[in-house]
Amino acid sequence: MSIIEGNHFIYTVRQGDTLYDIARRLGSNVEMITRANALYPPFTDVGLIFPGEVLIVPLTTASPQPNRVYQIVSPGDTLTQYVTRYSTSLDLLTGINPAIQDPNLINVNSVVLVPAFIYEVEPNDTIFKLSRRFGLSMNSIIEANRGRTGFSPDLIYQGYRLIIPLPTSRNIVVFHPMPGTTISNREFLEGYARVFEGVALYRVVDDNGQVVAKETAIQTTAGAPSYGYFGTQIRFDRTPSTRTGELWVYSRSPRDGSIQDLVQIRIMFS
User: Fold this and answer.
1) pLDDT tens sequence across 165-214
2) Cβ atoms within 10 A of the Cβ of 183, count?
3) pTM of the prediction?
4) Does residue 1 form part of some domain?
5) CA-to-CA distance for 117 and 149, rounded, in angstroms?
6) What percentage of the chain's residues is helix, strand, coil (to nearest 5)?
7) Are residues 158 and 176 in the same domain?
């Protein structure tokens, strides 16, 4: 599974930009940007970029919160555009970015945390196969990569890197584990949730419908109407009976106990 570790910026090229300037400003290097965006034949001339092109920019420095993707705001950008690009909700985007005071006003060059990860294409991958593997629609992957040189919905090449949206609900996003990855007992679970009294829930089921980890409460750092961060270890109650399954993160209605804001993440078991 070729999910690329580390933090990344998503940056739209502006008039006068060079790869060297972008790398220097954003804490990357030319070689990493070139590889991440396939800036070489047969996709394009070596190192060629043009205004309006969307680039993945890997960061060279470590972060206390690894494997995050950040959108750098370009002139004319709006949060509504990001909602479409990353197949998420305006509430969630503003909720996980507390620096945004007015969702109708985002400053150029500011940084917006977005629900996404970076994936490197493997042999025989297709957009359809990836959508099934990650539990997403084909259109969500296509939309996230719109404006990128070398991207075609019909044919993706080994080694090309894609922006993949994370599954979200209006009130919950899980940053780890990521879809399609392998988990085991005591796997770390983290994300953000806007939930009643700050209590979210998780469970793990395998593809036979067996409950691997029973419903367990997670305390977030803030209750609704705020989005709170959560981080905990997943505790297995029994051994999985299949190699694949799902992690569910959700809340329950305080009125009737029904499941709300269910986020389902496709996983594999070690």
Assistant:
1) 999 999 999 999 999 999 999 999 999 999 999 999 999 999 999 999 99
2) 24
3) 0.93
4) no
5) 18
6) 15, 30, 50
7) no
